[in-house]
Amino acid sequence: MHIDKLEKNWAGISLGIAGLFVAVILGSAFFHGIHAPSNVETIDSAKLHLSAEFAEDKLGVQRNPNGSVTVRMVAGRYGFYPKDLTLPAETAITFRWVSLDVIHGVHMPMTNMSTMIVPGYVAQVTTELHHAGDYPLLCNEYCGMGHAHMWSNIKVVSKAQWDALNTQGGANHG
């Protein structure tokens, strides 16, 4: 069987491009901390309000004994709940989301935080927010007619400011 030299060249170029793409993906995973979610945890979306972790009074910000922070949120048409949160900068923050209804996406612009929230599963992302300021939390997965109005506000403050807010009795900002 004879393969023309031009076809061999184009096959080599195609394989080279595919190899380059694989190298970029692996480089991103290893050097930039970009990787697929590894937390696989299921939950009954119809009984969220009865669950210990995602009951209405448990949503929001929780300070952990090791100094990290856990944020529990619920996504539902058409909003993230709670709507407003205050978080400390330079602190490990674990976001845990569940969906009440359909697939939602969550993205915080100007950060490395983005994931999908699938009904029946707990989505979990751990990140560190380095810069104080206001950040929108946006739904980036079309979820229905009110999709454009699905957002929350995250205010990032210095650790000192956050500690002061917590000692004044505002432990659950949300």
UniProtKB/TrEMBL annotation:
Span of domain Cytochrome oxidase subunit II copper A binding: 64-168
Output the SUPFAM superfamilies linked to this UniProt entry.
Cupredoxins
Q: Could you list the residue ranges that cross the membrane?
A: 12-34
Keywords linked to the UniProt accession: Copper, Membrane, Metal-binding, Transmembrane, Transmembrane helix
GO MF assignments? copper ion binding; cytochrome-c oxidase activity
What PROSITE patterns would the database entry show?
COX2 (PS00078), COX2_CUA (PS50857)
Localization recorded for this chain is:
Cell envelope
Whether Transmembrane counts among this entry's keywords is yes
Q: Which GO terms describe its cellular component?
A: cell envelope; membrane
Task: Identify this protein by name.
Answer: Cytochrome C oxidase subunit II
Provide the organism lineage as a comma list. Answer: Bacteria, Pseudomonadati, Pseudomonadota, Gammaproteobacteria, Methylococcales
